[in-house]
């Protein structure tokens, strides 16, 4: 079993309140869950209105599939016009570790 995770540090566009932040982050999280069938959550910068940390994780039988999914998720987030991807950190572990 392979477990992969990725965490994005995002700068949000024209956002001036936490309420506006939610209107950007929630649809992003929902789209990633639906499109890639993985676990996704906002996991940092909760008190800042122009920054967001979003994490996603996937479990699969082989390493190549996990890497492929994480690559596609990263491209999807980077392609969103309402956010700027500042950084992406990922990890990959086997159940044999």
TrEMBL record:
InterPro entries recorded: DUF503 (IPR007546), TT1725-like_sf (IPR036746)
Pfam families membership: DUF503
Superkingdom to which the source organism belongs: Bacteria
SUPFAM superfamilies hit by this protein: Hypothetical protein TT1725
Protein name (Swiss-Prot/TrEMBL): DUF503 family protein
């Amino acid at each position: 079993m392979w477990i992969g995770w990725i965490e994005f540090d995002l700068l949000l566009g024209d956002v001036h309140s936490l309420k506006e932040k939610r209107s950007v982050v929630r649809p992003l999280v929902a789209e990633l869950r639906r499109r890639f069938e993985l676990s996704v959550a906002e996991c940092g910068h909760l008190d800042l209105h122009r920054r967001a940390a979003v994490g996603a994780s996937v479990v699969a039988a082989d390493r190549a599939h996990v890497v492929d999914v994480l690559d596609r998720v990263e491209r999807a987030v980077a392609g969103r016009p309402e956010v700027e991807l500042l950084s992406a950190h990922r990890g990959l572990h086997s159940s044999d570790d």
